[in-house]
Structure formats: C-alpha cells, structure tokens
Amino acid sequence: MPNFCVNKNAQSTGEHEVHNLDANCSYLPDVVNRFQLGSFATCRGAVTEAEKTYSEVDGCAYCASDCHTK
Ligand SMILES: [Zn+2]
Fold first, then answer.
1. Taking phi first (over 0 means left), then psi (-120 to 50 degrees means alpha), and beta for anything else, what does residue 38 get?
2. Quick check: 19 and 6 in contact, CB under 8 A?
3. Distance of CA 3 from the midpoint of ligand 1 (Å)
4. Which one-letter DSSP state was computed for residue 63?
5. How would you write 14-46 as a 3-class SS string?
6. How far is the CA of 25 from the centre of ligand 1 (A)?
7. Residues in Cβ contact with 43 at an 8 Å cutoff, skipping those fewer than 6 apart
C-alpha cells in the first residue's frame, strides 16, 4: 500500500493537500512540512486520517487525483 503525507502548510485557499509519497509527485512539500499519515489502500483513507488533524483537506491533483475536489 502506498504511503501518504499531508502538507503541514495550508494552500492559499485554506486546504492541506494529501500526497502519495510513492507516486513520484513533483509537488510534494519539503520534508519538514510533511506530516506522515501512514499507508492506505487509497487516498480516501489518507484524507480521513488527515482530517483528524486538519479540518480542510484535499487530495493533490497529480498524485491523489481521486481525492482532488478543488
Ligand atoms: Zn502530489
């Protein structure tokens, strides 16, 4: 299962983006800004986990496009 992280820094629009660390995403946050979520079968589980910490969460348009809503 892929590993996911969420950006500790919010986007300018307020949401924290979830990234798939195993997808070679070009838009990963800097290592210090990655909050490790763990491994999940799909980005949905990672988003749910991230929502325990941040109220506004969205999937990255590139590596978690199934969870990208904004
Ligand atoms: Zn990404």
1. left
2. yes
3. 12
4. T
5. CCEEEEECCCCCCCCCCHHHEEEEEECCCHHHH
6. 5
7. 4, 18, 20, 59, 64, 66, 67
Measured in angstroms, how far is the CA atom of residue 35 from the centroid of ligand 1? 13
Give the Å distances, CA to CA, from 7 to 27, 34, 37.
Answer: 10, 5, 10
- Residue with tokens 């990234």, as numbered in its chain: 19
If you search the block for the tokens 């070679």, which residue do you land on?
A: 24
Give the pLDDT confidence of 5-43 residue by residue, as tens digits.
999 999 999 999 999 999 999 999 999 999 999 999 999
- Whole-model pTM: value is 0.95
Give, in degrees to the nearest 5, the angle at Cα 45 between 5 and 38: 40
